[in-house]
Structures are given as C-alpha cells and as structure tokens.
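R.M. (postdoc): so does anyone remember the format we settled on? I'll just put the structure tokens first.
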C-alpha cells in the first residue's frame, strides 16, 4: 500500500464556533451595528438620505429633514412656501432666516439660498455608500447547520477535503490534495487564512485611503466654494469702483462743459451790448434828423420871405451840424460770427473709446499678481 504524505498545513482546519464562543463574524456585526447608529438622522430617526448637510455646530441632517425643521420653525415662511413651488420657495429665502439644530439647539443662520446654502457633508455620504455596499455583501443569517456547512467548504475534485489553501499561481482557493496530487501540485500556495487576512487588510487600507481622499476633496470643494463667494464679492467691489470712476469722469466733463458754455455766453453778451449801444445811438440820430426834416418842410411853406430867410438859416446850420455828426459807425465784418469757438473732441473721443483697465495694477496701486504674470 502506498503511503501518502500530507503537509502539516493541509491537516489544519478551522474549528466551528461553539455555543460559548462567538464566530468570526460576531465582531464585524457589532462594528457595523455601531456604525449604523452613527448614521441615523436625529429628525427622521432613519439612516441619512442624500444629500446630507452639515450644520455650523458640526451635526448632520438630511437636507429634507433640515428643510422640514426650518419650515416648522418659521410659520410665515411655511405659509409662503405653500403658495409657491416647493423648490423655489425652499431654496431661496431672505437673508437672515434661521432655525435651531435639533441635537444641540444651536441657532443656524441661513443665507438667501436657505437650506440649499448649507454645506454638504461628502464624507458622511461616502461612508453611507461604503456601509450600504458592505451591507449588500453581508451574508444572510443562517441556521447553525448552514453556518457549519458554509465554514467547511469542500473541494469539488476531492469531496471529503476542505478548502484550506490558496493557489497563488492560479489565484483560486483549493485543498491540500490538489496541491499534492492535483492540478496545483506545481503551483505556489499559501494558507487560506493568511491570504484572507492580507486581502482584508488591503481592502481596509484602501477604504481608509478612499475616505481620506474624499475628505481632501470635500475640503477642496469648500475652498472652491469660498473662492466663488470671494469672486462674487470682488466683482461687485470692482463694479462699484468702476461706477465711481465713470461718474467722476461724467462730472468732470459736465463741469468743463459749463465753463465753455459760460465763455460763449460772455462773448455773446459783449457783442450784443456793443450792437445795442450802436442801435441806440443811431436811433437817436435818426429821430433828430426826422424832426429837423419836418421843421425844414414846414419852413418851406413860410409865405413871408424875411421870416423864411431867418428860419432857413437856422435850419441849414442845424442840418450842417447833423450831417457832420452823423458818422455811420459799423461793426467790423464777421462781427456776429462765433466760429472760433470750435471744440475738437476727436482725440478725446478716441481716447475714451480705448479706455481700459490698467494691466498689473490694482485699485490700491499695488501690482496685481494675475496681471503681472502675463
């Protein structure tokens, strides 16, 4: 009879749990149960439903539950929300709305976005996903005889041999007989328990790395959201600053316009004053000449020669004086023209059309790092 030598590690097997000792899944079940308690919403008393929001006091709520708490504590807001659409009324509120955390009664101040402005806790959401994946893979509780059968999986080729080693070459669990006689005799193997512990450790480390990476992503998202807020604030500040600068230019142009209009008005008044003085002077001369003409015509009708000669002599003397004094003073040619008041704004208009921001210089006179890199 041929003697078969079986390696020592092939003779070991896992002892089924007794009535007084918990099985290997008992600790894991307790851990998952404790984790589940930490993922319960304090409002609905159910597991968190995404999206999960984190309050300033670091407590977490389902966003739907946070909205319910907010509406129940603001009756006026609740009456408004019932008369409008659910999203628009619950997402946009007046700045200053508030409610209290149901866990610690800390007062939560909301912005104009309402509960939709609260920061999402992506870390808790990722833990929820991992928990649900673990629960989906969690074995269904079995009867003791089913557990014993599950723990004592047998080899398909050697029905009475338990699967207790792992073929590293083929990457599959197998039994000791397959290593000694079967298709895995030339392969590298390792105890199934060591491979199990190693892969479980690797998976646990990967989960920890994923959670840490998600934490970093959440921090980055928070930083990006803060940057968005700062961009909006800086844009508003620059718009106000731009309005002030243009209002100053408009005021300067209006002031200069008034100065130039005043200069034109002064020249207009001077010319009109001179022209009206000439009109008054020549009007007086004309009236005197008309009166003298009427006197001369009347003297022509004098029938007595002696009286005519006396009056004619006086009239002739007055006519000579009037003719000598009636110098026709006229303004110079083009006196009425104001064509020298011409304003050339072409260069200024071109300058205004090309007005632009100064690259690399902020409103405080310091160089802008973004503009300086161009």
């Amino acid at each position: 009879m041929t003697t078969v030598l079986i390696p020592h590690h092939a003779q070991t097997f896992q002892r089924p749990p007794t009535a007084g000792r918990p099985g290997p899944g008992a600790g894991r079940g307790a851990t998952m149960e404790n984790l589940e308690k930490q993922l319960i919403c304090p409002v609905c008393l159910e597991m968190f439903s995404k999206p999960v929001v984190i309050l300033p006091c670091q407590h977490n709520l389902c966003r739907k539950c946070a909205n319910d708490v907010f509406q129940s504590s603001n009756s006026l807001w609740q009456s408004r929300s019932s008369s409008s659409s659910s999203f628009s009324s619950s997402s946009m509120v007046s700045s200053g709305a508030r409610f209290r955390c149901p866990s610690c009664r800390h007062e939560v101040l909301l912005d104009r976005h309402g509960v939709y402005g609260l920061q999402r806790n992506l870390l808790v959401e990722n833990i929820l996903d991992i928990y649900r994946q673990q629960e989906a893979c969690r074995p269904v509780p079995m009867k003791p005889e089913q557990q014993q059968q599950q723990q004592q999986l047998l080899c398909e080729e050697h029905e009475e041999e338990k699967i207790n080693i792992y073929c590293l070459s083929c990457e599959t669990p197998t039994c000791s007989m397959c290593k000694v006689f079967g298709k895995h005799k030339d392969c590298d193997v390792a105890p199934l328990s060591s491979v199990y512990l190693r892969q479980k450790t690797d998976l646990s480390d990967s989960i920890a790395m994923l959670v840490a990476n998600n934490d970093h992503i959440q921090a980055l998202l928070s930083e990006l959201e803060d940057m968005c807020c700062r961009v909006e604030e800086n844009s508003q500040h620059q718009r106000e600053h731009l309005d002030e600068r243009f209002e100053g230019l408009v005021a300067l142009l209006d002031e200069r316009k008034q100065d130039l209009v005043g200069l034109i008005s002064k020249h207009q008044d001077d010319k009109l004053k001179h022209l009206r003085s000439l009109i008054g002077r020549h009007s007086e001369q004309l009236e005197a000449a008309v009166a003298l003409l009427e006197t001369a015509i009347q003297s022509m009708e004098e029938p007595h020669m002696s009286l005519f000669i006396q009056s004619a002599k006086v009239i002739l003397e007055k006519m000579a004086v009037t003719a000598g004094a009636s110098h026709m003073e006229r303004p110079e040619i083009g006196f009425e023209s104001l064509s020298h008041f011409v304003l050339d704004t072409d260069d200024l208009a071109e300058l205004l059309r090309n007005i632009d921001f100064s690259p690399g210089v902020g409103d405080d006179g310091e160089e802008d790092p973004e503009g300086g890199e161009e």
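R.M.: ...and that's the designed sequence above, right after the tokens. Also worth knowing: The chain has a mean pLDDT of 78. The longest strand covers residues 163-167.
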